[in-house]
Write a structure and sequence with these properties.
Blueprint lengths: L4 E5 L5 H11 L6 H9 L4 E7 L2 E11 L2 E9 L8 H13 L5 E7 L3 H9 L3 E6 L10 E7 L11
Parallel strand pairs: 4-5
Antiparallel strand pairs: 1-2, 2-3, 3-4, 5-7, 6-7
C-alpha cells in the first residue's frame, strides 16, 4: 500500500532532496542559491510533498505585487503520474486563493502533460516567450489564471 502524501512548508533542510529532484527533472536546474532566495521571501508559498517521510516533490510560488508567479513545480521522476503535482497546486490554491487572485507561469511548449494539468486548473495561454529556455532555445508558453469571484450573498433562484 502506498503511504499517504504529506504536504507541508518547504524547509532549508529539504534542499539537498530538492536539488536531487531538480537535477533529474530539468535540463537547466536551479542553483541552491536560487532556492535559498525563494525560501527567504516571506510572501511566497514553498511546499514540500513527502511520501513515507521521503521528499517526492516541491513547489515554489512567489508573490509579485498583486500576482502569484508559479515558478517551479517538480516531482521525483520515479513518482510521476501519481497526482503529486496536482496535490501541491491544489494546496497552493487553498493557501493563496482569494476572489480575483491572479497567477502566472511559464511552461515549455513541448510539455503537453503539464500544459494539460495547468489548463485543468483554469490556466489559459496568453502568449509565448520566444527562445526562453537556454538549453535548447525552446519557447515558453505563458499561462494565466484568475481565481473565481465569490458568488453574491443571497442571490439564488
Amino acid at each position: 500500500m502506498t503511504p499517504p502524501l504529506e504536504l507541508r512548508r518547504l524547509f532549508y533542510a529539504d534542499l539537498p532532496g530538492v536539488i536531487a529532484i531538480e537535477r533529474r527533472a530539468f535540463p537547466t536546474p536551479w542553483s541552491l542559491a536560487m532556492f535559498v532566495l525563494e525560501l527567504s521571501k516571506p510572501s511566497g508559498v514553498c511546499l514540500a510533498a513527502l511520501r513515507g517521510g521521503r521528499l517526492v516533490g516541491y513547489l515554489i510560488c512567489a508573490r509579485y505585487d498583486r500576482v502569484w508567479h508559479l515558478m517551479n513545480v517538480a516531482v521525483d521522476d520515479r513518482r510521476l503520474r501519481e497526482g503529486i503535482a496536482t496535490a501541491m497546486i491544489e494546496r497552493l490554491f487553498e493557501l493563496a486563493d482569494g476572489p480575483g487572485e491572479q497567477y502566472t507561469l511559464e511552461v515549455r511548449t513541448s510539455n503537453s502533460g503539464a500544459i494539460e494539468m495547468y489548463e485543468g486548473f483554469g490556466f489559459r495561454s496568453a502568449g509565448r516567450k520566444r527562445a526562453y529556455y537556454h538549453d535548447n532555445r525552446e519557447d515558453a508558453l505563458i499561462m494565466w489564471r484568475t481565481a473565481p469571484q465569490r458568488a453574491p450573498a443571497g442571490g439564488g433562484s
